[in-house]
Amino acid sequence: MAAPKKGRSASAQSRPGRSLALILIALVALTGGMFLSGHSTPRLGIDLAGGTSITLEAKNEPGQPNAINKTNMNTAVDIMNRRVNGLGVSEAEVQTQGDRNIIVNIPKGTNSKQALAQVGTTAKLYFRPVLVTEVSGKAATGTPSPSASSSDSSKDKASDKATDKATSSSSATPSATATSQGRAVTDALKADATPSGTASAKSSASAKASASTSTTPSPSGSVDPATAKLQAQYAALDCTDKAVRAKAGDGVKATDPTVACGQNSSGQWQKYVLGPAEVSGTDIKSAAAVFDTQSAAGWKVTMDFTSGGSKTFADITGKLAKNQSPQNQFAIVLDGEVVSDPYVSQALTGGNAEISGSFTQTEAQDLANMLKYGALPLTFKAASVTTVTAALGGEQLHAGLIAGAIGLGLVIIYLVVYYRGLSIIAIASLMVSAVLTYVLMALLGPAIGFALNLPAVCGAIVAIGITADSFIVFFERIRDEIREGRSLRPAVERAWPRARRTILVSDFVSFLAAAVLFIVTVGKVQGFAFTLGLTTLLDVVVVFLFTKPLMTILARKKFFASGHSWSGLDPKRLGAQPPLRRTRRASAPVDTKEA
Predict the structure, then answer these.
(1) pLDDT tens for residues 193-204?
(2) Would you call the peptide bond into 579 cis, given omega within 30 degrees of 0 as the criterion?
(3) Best label site of 190, 366, 390, 574, fewest CB within 10 Å?
(4) Running DSSP on this structure, what letter comes out for residue 557?
(5) pLDDT in tens, 469-503
(6) Mind listing the pLDDT tens digit for each residue in 522-548?
């Protein structure tokens, strides 16, 4: 039996070094990654950096009781995020709160009234005919020339897939199926349809606008001021500039032509001259992303129109089908940005349509969500608008750091006075936990958007007590073993399993409370819950990989093993007595002889 015990002891003695090496390597790697990534400081929240916090509440419209749901709210968040980023706002945060609220946090340097107007209005979705388009930065070299195209929709799709999605109207002789996005709109029912003989008033307006914005030069005397202004806007439009894209089409009515920008599947920005809006988002009843298993089309987007929208859509598609590229396309414009510009080869009169052409699943779902959101009468009301200055946040942070320093100082004083030499282990463990917490907060900022706000700072301060509590549990278990008459090294090994169970249960309760708080709350309170949960997990890591191995190593040192009066493990000061088992074994033979 002696040999196995020695083997287990030797194995146990080799583990502390490996555990310490593991956590030190992880610490060095994380710190190096923090500096290499260029994020050496945690990302500050709005209460520390200053800015505006807007709470928007979604409202149901009459006749649409189920418009507010998780999918639409998440889509609204995506659209609002694009809106505030379109203003040139850096590090803006948009997130849902509960079932019907959206929180928009905008850092300093932004006009809060302008931001509120941008994010609080309902998304505007329009179908506009494309008059002129080209890749931004290139000049149109001529008017498109017509070419013969088959009226068979399946042939149109085949040619669509073979064409480059990034082609523009700047080509000298583009075919009728060569478009900037390379996607086709066809009747979802595959029914034969003929172009509508009569065009609506809006279609006539589109034709007039198309003629007036032709790329063919015309005498200056024959160009009316409105057309000249539109041509000048188009010539000056640089869609590669974020600020220019945000202002394109500002203040333009739905019934007027406009300029717009959109990104094609190749990642290039294209600029457009668009005619008056023919169909609005409210004309769409539903939209969905569908995978076509009966053909090679792959993912596509299907749309169902209302009764009024069906007639309007049939009129405009019949008109566009007669035109040459790119004027046989219509642009789906969401908040002034072109999200898709498919072409039309025939009038679509069935009340539904589909957009196909090399979609990925994500692209199809995103476009379907945009169409659905634009079709919903979902409005938002500003429940609150709060302005936080950087000075106020800085003062609160300063006060919070002072409070944390005082709390940490009191904990250290208590450890030194009560545990003496053992306080070295506790202080070293606290330092390792603090460094890990700081590094992870700095890395989580760019990784998941974590922002350090005042509640998060409070969570880190509370974690000091949770971490110190784990050390105290371990130390007291060791002292209990010494009081029973054991030497330090076996006392450490016997105390650890009992202390480990207590530490795990305590940390599990703390983590569970943080998780519940994180789930049921939103906004700044989630920062407190997230930090509390993070530091609780780090407490387990530090205690298992640093505190216990370090205690095992120091137990071999004479200063601690001999029970020095300043080690905190002096048997006399702890009131150690001989073990009860040894006393019973000594008295047992005496009782037997007397009997």
Answers:
(1) 333 333 333 333
(2) no
(3) 190
(4) S
(5) 898 899 999 998 888 888 888 899 999 999 999 99
(6) 667 778 888 999 999 999 999 999 999
Poorest-confidence range of 346-360, 396-410, 525-539, 579-593? 579-593
Amino acid at 462: V
Task: Provide the CA 403 distance to its chain's centre, in angstroms.
Answer: 32
- Check: CB of residue 567 under 8 Å from CB of residue 479: no
The amino acid occupying position 286 is S
Q: How far apart are CA 158 and CA 152, in angstroms?
A: 10
CA–CA separation, 83 and 118 (whole Å): 6
Q: What are the residues facing 384 on neighbouring strands?
A: 55
Structural tokens at position 78? 């995506």
**Which distant-in-sequence residues (6+ apart) come within 8 Å of 203 by Cβ?**
278, 315, 316, 319
Angle at 415 between CA 414 and CA 417, to 5 degrees: 65
Label residue 245 exposed, middle or buried (CB < 10 Å: 0-12, 13-18, 19+). Answer: buried
Close Cβ partners of 25 (under 8 Å, ≥ 6 residues apart): none
154/99: higher pLDDT = 99
pLDDT at residue 37, as a whole number: 82
Lowest-pLDDT range, 454-458, 523-527, 590-594? 590-594
DSSP structure string for 313-328: HHHHHHHHTTSPTTTT
| Strands 352-359 and 101-107, bridge-based pairing | unpaired
Q: How long, in residues, is the chain?
A: 595
| DSSP per-residue codes, 440-488 | HHHHHHHHH---B-HHHHHHHHHHHHHHHHHHHHHHHHHHHHHHTT--H
The position carrying tokens 């015990």 is 5
CA distance 411 to 427: 9
Going by the DSSP 8-state scheme, the letter that residue 82 receives in this structure is H
State the DSSP H helix or E strand holding residue 404, giving kind and residue range, or none if neither. Answer: helix 390-419
Cα–Cα distance for residue pair 382/159, rounded to 1 Å: 48
Of 72, 82, 102, the C-alpha closest to 381 is 102
Q: Which amino acid, 258? A: T
Token pair, residue 458, equals 């409070």
Instruction: Give pTM, 2 decimals.
Output: 0.52
3-16 b/e with 16+ CB inside 10 Å = b?
eeeeeeeeeeeeeb
What count of other Cβ atoms lies within 10 Å of the Cβ of residue 536? 25
Distance CA 162, CA 182 (A): 9
| Per-residue model confidence (pLDDT) at position 84 | 63
Q: Who wins on pLDDT, 567 or 117?
A: 567
**pLDDT higher than 80, residue 28:** yes
